[in-house]
Amino acid sequence: MAYSTNNKLKYFINDYWDIFLGIASIIIAFYFHKVSSGGAATLFAAIGIGALSLSVSEIAEILSERLQEPYGSFVLTLSAVIVEIILLYIILLQAVSDPEVVNTVKGGIISAVIVDMNVLLGLAVFLGGLKFTEQEHNKETSSAYTTILFVTGAALLVPGVLGLGKHSQSVIENASIAIAVLLMLFYIIILIFQTKTHTHFFKQTARSRIFRIKRKMAEKSLEEVQEEDDGYIFEKFNKLGLILSIFIFIAIIALGAEVFASDGIKLAKEYGISAGISGLIIAIVAVSPEIITAIKAAKNDEIQRVVNIAMGASTVSILLTVPILMALAYASGIRFTLNFNPLEIGALFLTIILAWKTTDEGHTNYFEGISHLMFFFAFAIIAAYY
Fold first, then answer.
1. How far is CA 71 from CA 40, 190, 200, 240, in A?
2. What CA–CA distance (Å, rounded) separates 170 from 163?
3. How far apart are the C-alpha atoms of 148 and 143, rounded to whole Å?
4. What is the pLDDT of residues 68-106, one digit of tens each?
5. What is the spatial distance between Cα 172 and Cα 159, in angstroms, rounded to a whole number?
6. What is the spatial distance between Cα 273 and Cα 267, in angstroms, rounded to a whole number?
């Protein structure tokens, strides 16, 4: 009886630790915010955002299993990007009193791609390569995504090039709006391509819920595991209940993001942290749940899932985040343009080239993973002093 109780407690902790940690951390963050302890408030807000983002991704994945394509993929993509947009938008609101914050937000947009394609992909490929020597994936996936990212990167060059040509601010703003519209249209086409006409290019493998079952299979039979797994409360919710749960957690994340933005920006100015490093920190907080999921997938020899997560998230981070963030900025009276600095654009293109070279043959190894990590650390050093 005691053994059964201990097992139930163990699985309860495994299933719900992220929710308890996330809510508790955000409450603690508010406490430190009230007592003017900015460093502690920022740290606990970041932990809370990361933990609850993981909860959102798990609930969205359960919902996606119950929906027919393309809606399943749409839910997974949207739930991930909403958290990133909320975090960046709340930080952007600080630009009303401090215009320099806009540069931090721009850094956050590009850094999300840098982190996805180098930290997430690099860590997962490195750890998977150590365990399995070489892992295979659908090379059409990386080919399609790197093409999309090249085109997207080229589009983001336009406002910056106009800025170098001594054009007026109004011209750069108009060009930024036009590029944002193009990016949104491009995303719609890609969504059709991915979920309707060329689904075989993005063939997915096991979902993260299966990883949990695999771990439990080491101790129990499959039938017992399935009974245990049915105890996960969100599995019992209907579609509306799952959607409401996602929005409730996103609302709590928004509260944590408010503390993270206000105290984090003050902390960055106080310690002279560059916009580049601030953007990287924001990206790591936003992407942390995806990193955890990708590492689990790589260790389960599901490198196809890793490629889908890393490259798919990078694509959406630009194609959806940029136009939506621009619309929100202008609605809030904040002037936001897409004239990224040379370091950001250069790092974006070098990342795309590196990802193309390490994935184009349809197999990966630990050397390719460490190459991505080396690139990330080199970028972080430059960003710290840029």
1. 40, 14, 17, 14
2. 11
3. 9
4. 544 555 666 677 778 888 889 998 998 888 888 888 899
5. 5
6. 8
Instruction: Of 266, 252, 251, 254, give the one whose Cα is nearest residue 41.
Output: 266
Cα gap 92→74, rounded to integer Å: 26
Separation CA 170–CA 138 (nearest Å): 44
Determine the residue type at 119.
V
Domain 2-385 falls in which CATH fold? A middle domain of Talin 1 (1.20.1420)
CA distance 353 to 114: 12
Q: Domain ranges in the chain?
A: 2-385
> Is 103:342 a contact under the CB 8 Å cutoff?
no
For 206, residues 6+ apart whose C-beta sits below 8 A from its C-beta are: 297, 300, 302, 305
Reported residue count of the chain is 386
CA distance 205 to 82: 24
- As given in the structure block, the two tokens for residue 93 are 């609101």
Whether pTM exceeds 0.85? no
How many angstroms separate the CA atoms of 290 and 306, rounded?
Answer: 9
Measured in whole angstroms, how far is the alpha carbon of residue 249 from the centre of its chain? 16
The span from the CA of 263 to the CA of 265, in Å, is 6
- Cα(337)–Cα(179) distance, rounded to whole angstroms? 10
pLDDT tens per residue, range 361-383: 888 899 999 999 999 999 999 98
Q: Are strands 135-136 and 363-364 parallel, antiparallel or unpaired?
A: antiparallel
Dihedral of the CA atoms 288, 289, 294, 296 (nearest 10)?
Answer: 120
Q: Alpha helices of 165-232 — where are they, by DSSP H? A: 169-192, 208-217, 222-229
CA nearest 42: which of 22, 25, 18? 25
d(CA 383, CA 386): 5
